[in-house]
Design a protein that fits this description.
Blueprint: H1 13-16, E1 23-25, H2 30-40, E2 44-49, E3 52-58, H3 59-67, E4 87-89, H4 94-104, E5 108-113, E6 116-122, H5 123-131
Parallel strand pairs: 1-2, 4-5
Antiparallel strand pairs: 2-3, 5-6
């Protein structure tokens, strides 16, 4: 299948996003995040403050901020999270998600509907869809 054969505009973010989200508060530690990621087999956890999403911690954040700088594992997640959240609306085409990830040099986007986070879409989701 060539790139031209793949109709990116007909598949929406909501069609391939993951709806199950894990959130923590800002006092959660880097060690707790690492254990949650390992046990859940996930690569991203959202951070909330007063029930509002304010950031995300990804496996890459952990590697580049904690491990690479030998930071203490009891450090608060608020010091290692990526913020502000970069989002995409649930009813946008996946091509828009790919473009946003490319332009922002990220691999995960929070998905919103009416201003609320309802899911996450990753570069792996896009590759998996392309491979179908």
């Amino acid at each position: 299948m060539s790139r031209e054969d793949f109709n990116y505009s007909s598949i929406l973010v909501q069609d391939i996003m993951t709806k199950a989200l894990i959130t923590v508060n800002t006092s959660t530690t880097a060690l707790q995040i690492a254990k949650m990621m390992e046990q859940g087999g996930i690569g991203a956890i959202f951070v909330k403050e007063n029930d509002n999403p304010i950031g995300i911690v990804t496996d890459r954040d952990f590697a580049t901020r904690v491990a690479a700088n030998n930071l203490p594992f009891d450090m608060s997640v608020s010091k290692i999270m990526s913020s502000p959240l970069i989002t995409i609306n649930h009813n946008e085409p996946i091509s828009a998600a790919a473009e946003r990830m490319t332009s922002k040099k990220i691999r995960k986007l929070a998905v919103t509907e009416n201003g609320k986070i309802v899911g996450i879409i990753t570069s792996t989701d896009l590759v998996t869809q392309l491979a179908k």
